[in-house]
Amino acid sequence: MMKHLKVLGAFLGFFLLSAPLFPSTLSVMVVETGVNENTPRLDASSLWEGGLMDVCFDTGHIVTNAPILRLERNQVRPYPDEVLLDLGDAIESGVEYYILAVLDYEILPDDTSAYRPRSIALRFVQLAPRRVLFEVHYTGNPQATLAEASRQAKEAARVLLTHFEG
Fold this sequence. Notes:
Layout: H1 2-18, E1 25-33, H2 43-58, E2 62-65, E3 69-71, H3 87-92, E4 97-108, E5 111-126, E6 131-139, H4 146-161
Parallel strand pairs: 1-2, 1-3, 1-4
Antiparallel strand pairs: 4-5, 5-6
Helix pairs in contact: 2-4
């Protein structure tokens, strides 16, 4: 009996320490650059969005997502103007933080129909007051499998959440 209580206590203690006391609401926003509206759906974007959302949800946060935004032209800056993002709706719906993932795509030289992210820029932002909590840039790997991309997205989310101030 005592052994069962210790196991139950250890499980509950782990759960309580790994989840925030008060869940925060986060929105994941993915922006694709270097593609146009006619480009077919890109698996890497969905994997990054899903990986970021999964980790946030698994750590006890309420997570939403915005529709993926496409920008045909690659930008000089790694992040688009925030005017392009739908932050007004996010704030009105109670979102406190957002993760912006900008995947800058390139066409693979050996397959002109295949797109892979050349770079991934992530920004973790608190909405009120608006401030950047953390940002990081990754170099894309054209040979990466979809499983590797998913694993990288989840690891990136864990890194971002270490800077959570909720």
